[in-house]
Amino acid sequence: MPDIIDKKPAQYAGEVGRFAKNLAHPNVGLFNHLRGISVVHGNVQDLSPKVRSYVEANIELCQPDNIHICDGSDNENKQLLNLLQQQGTIVPLPKYKNCWLARTNPADTARVESKTFICTERRADTIPTTKDGIKGTLGNWMSPRDMDAAVQDRFNGCMKGRTMYVIPYSMGPVGSPLSKIGIELTDSAYVVSSMRVMTRMGKPVLDKLAQSDEFVKCLHSVGTPANGTVEMASWPCDPERTIILHKPQNNEIVSYGSGYGGNSLLGKKCFALRIGSTIAKREGWLAEHMLILGITNPKGEKRYIAAAFPSACGKTNLAMLNPTLPGYQIECVGDDIAWMRFDDKGQLRAINPENGFFGVAPGTSYSSNPNAMKTIFENTIFTNVASTSDGGVFWEGMEDEVDFSQIKITDWLGKPWVKGESKTPAAHPNSRFCSPAEQCPIIDPAWEAPEGVPISAILFGGRRPAGVPLIYEARDWQHGVFVGSTMRSEATAAAEHKGKVIMHDPFAMRPFFGYNFGHYLDHWLSMKNRSTNLPKIFHVNWFRKDVDGKFIWPGFGENSRVLDWVLRRIENEDCATETAIGLIPKDDALNMQGLKEEINMKELFHLPKDFWMEECFAIEKYFKEQIGMDLPQAIDEELKGLKKRVNNM
Ligand code: GTP
Ligand code: SPV
Ligand code: MN
Asked: Which segments constitute the Phosphoenolpyruvate carboxykinase GTP-utilising N-terminal domain (predicted)?
């Protein structure tokens, strides 16, 4: 295997010539930077002028030793995996085909919401204006000047001794009218290999750029701590100075200090949601933290449903659901992000802009999510899961799949782990698999359809241990937007929050809004005028607990019973009854055929008046404090209506 760094040393002079020749205004300093640089992979002349000047400017800033222009080929990927193995970043998992395990620095295991900023001239464009003394929780704002200073402070020379990879990628199928292109510059080969799974990456995208030249600028570095210390050579990062910046005005993302998931795979949360939502606002569509699934009923009628649940609250599981209800079939379009717009007939259509799954590993098993298990044991990069002595992986939930008398477990930190004895989890709670979507056995035939799939219903949901029923339906679009705005959920390990506090997470987008949430609500409300055929909106909760702290509802495949009711409601079947909070299934309307467990349906749908009074109070306080003047009047009216109905309960 040739060392990738030395792949094309002979070409260096010529490549530099090409870089230098193309400078908009020849700059001696810049030329000097470029003189020391080898283009070790790819050809500079494949870059469009706009891409080239973006690359050149960041070469000057970051001062990498080498440039690697990614083509997305198998060969390139093999070389990168080899390099990552040499660096100790990944180890092979010989039990499976082309699978790898990465162990991160323990200080770099999840998204960092508190260090994520949207940069606009006016603060009010990014976050609602809160009263003095109230800390806003709907995103963080920074001025473009402070952003520039933060970038200079961290990126100057940050890639010295490293290779800068140029990743051309498409969110959405290359060429779909709903797709968008990004260029990510990164010094992490792990990011390149992961982006190759999560997006359409490489040569076809560069070719596309030659025609349109529009792309989202994404700059990423794992960073180098200011004092020069590197705690873990196999996973360099700079947790102290980690920062994730977005400048919607010029479609620009800058991320420093973390190699993990949503912090570093910039097509995902940074582009597809934060920058994506600002583009969507301008262009009149929706960029949402939603799965997309296709469901066919026993009569052979197929519908598509999108659903927004906060991180680690069940999107991947619902998207790949294995229905227990006979005669139903579910197919997966996407498990995390939906880009949706109304077509000229008023039909809402969605694409999944991603190409892979970056899914939560713990809890995934043949009993909970067999389709995920059939997806993830080929061409997968696992991060922070435990490993087994026979070259496989392990995590909490896989106990039935491992013979502990024969197999030894090594935890995510590389330490021996013994079931029943070890006090810490084997896998990090936010450990993940990164697998190609096309490997999913139930991937939908239309998952790459350029026009998107038609959406008939939207579900909102979260982890609500008390008070919130299994499902309720919003009375109309405006009420549905209100329901999305009132979403709350227990915190999970997907971000840095501690404990299981119930947090407000409107639309499951709290960490991902690219602009003022009040304006986002206006935008959602305005969709009402785009169609006479609006999707129905529902709220679901798989996570209600009984007095003993046990889940009342079995969840997973049994959730097909809830989807069956949703489908019948789409057809306007008379199977719903009004309550103060919305419509719930009539007695016996939920199909419980063949369900083995005894379910306490009364408890599952009980609406305690005191709970809902408290809930109204919490929502009112949240709206007042967090959205203030930016709260649309229609949403305020919905809250007043809910309060009145709850009062009369
Ligand atoms: P992100 O990738 O972070 O956006 O998460 P996600 O929304 O895709 O969540 P995912 O489907 O990975 O589920 C997260 C956790 O919730 C896993 O541990 C699942 O086992 C658990 N879970 C998912 N669906 C259900 C359900 O219906 N009932 C219960 N009790 N747990 C569930
Ligand atoms: C989430 O947290 O919602 C994820 C994982 O999907 S990450 O890509 O890390 O944001
Ligand atoms: Mn997610």
From this structure: 54-281
Residues in the chain: 649
The per-residue pLDDT for 276 is 98
What interhelical angle do 49-62 and 144-155 show, nearest 10? 60
Measured between alpha carbons, how far is 318 from 198 in angstroms, rounded to an integer?
A: 19
**Cα distances (angstroms) measured from residue 470 to each of 338, 364, 544:** 24, 22, 8
In this structure, which amino acid lies at residue 343? Answer: D
Question: What is the distance between the alpha carbons of residues 200 and 353, in angstroms, rounded to a whole number?
Answer: 9
Give the closest residue (by CA) to ligand 2 atom 8.
Answer: 262
Spatial contact of 37 and 9, defined as CB atoms under 8 Å apart: no
Tokens of 18: 């090409």
Pocket test for ligand 1, best of 113, 198, 263, 317 (most atoms within 8 A of CB): 317
Pick the residue with more confidence: 307 or 499?
Answer: 307
* CB contact burial 379-412 (16+ within 10 A = b; e otherwise): bbbbbbbbbbeeebbbbbbbeeebeeeeeebbbb
pLDDT for the residue 227: 83
The reported pTM is 0.94
**Is 40 a pocket residue for ligand 1 (Cβ < 6 Å)?**
no
Nearest CA to ligand 1 atom 5: 312
How far is 18 from 253, CA to CA, in rounded Å?
27
Residue 260 CB–ligand 1 contact under 6 Å: no
Nearest CA to ligand 2 atom 3: 311
Report pLDDT digits (tens) over 164-190.
999 999 999 998 999 999 999 999 999
309, two tokens: 């649940």
Closest residue by CA, ligand 1 atom 15: 312
Closest-CA residue, ligand 2 atom 5, reads 262
Residue 156 DSSP one-character state: T
Q: Which residues are catalytic?
A: 313
8 A C-beta contact, residue 274 and residue 512: yes
Ligand 1 binding pocket includes 317 (Cβ within 6 Å): yes
Probe residue for ligand 1, chosen from 111, 260, 360 as the CB with the greatest number of ligand atoms within 8 Å: 360
Give CA–CA dist 451/99, Å, rounded: 33
- Kindly report the backbone phi and psi dihedral angles of residue 414, in degrees, each rounded to the nearest multiple of 5, phi listed first: 90, 10
362 within 8 A of 426, measured Cβ to Cβ: no
204 CA distance to ligand 2 middle (Å): 27
pLDDT in tens, 284-311: 999 999 999 999 999 999 999 999 999 9
Distance CA 160, CA 135 (A): 38
Alpha helices by DSSP H, listed for 2-106, are 12-21, 28-35, 49-62, 74-86
Task: State the amino acid at position 438 in one-letter form.
Answer: E
Neighbouring residues of the ion ligand 3, judged by CB less than 5 Å: 311, 336
CA of 288 relative to ligand 2 center, distance in Å: 13
Which atom of ligand 2 is nearest to 360's Cα?
5
